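Slide 14.
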Amino acid sequence: MKALQIVETAYRATLEEQDDTVLWLTHSMKGAGADLAVLLRGNAVNYVVRGQDASGLRFGQEAQTRPPRIPDDVASLLAKGVPVFVVREDFEERGLDEKDAIEGVQFVARRELPELFERFDRVWHW
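Slide 15: predicted structure.
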């Protein structure tokens, strides 16, 4: 089974676990042999922006000693052979430029999404 995981809600659980739960799950499932891809849309497109640094993140007196490194998690997925797609319009609406993205991600236009979905047996939206 070939599945596309759509991540739209960004930074879900990153304070407790330092990773996006869906990206972590995708890593694990890929390691077990699953055929997966990831589509980032909405605020989750920020995951592919290079140079992010959340060190120094604090909540009151509590410091986050293991800040999330989401772009590194995405790069690791790409290195494992997991295709990562990004909705171009969502990226641009946040004032981002494709040159700001880590290498290897594939930008797709919203109008191309139905064709992308057709390439997978399952589409899971998180």
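Speaker note: The CA atoms of residues 23 and 124 lie 13 Å apart.
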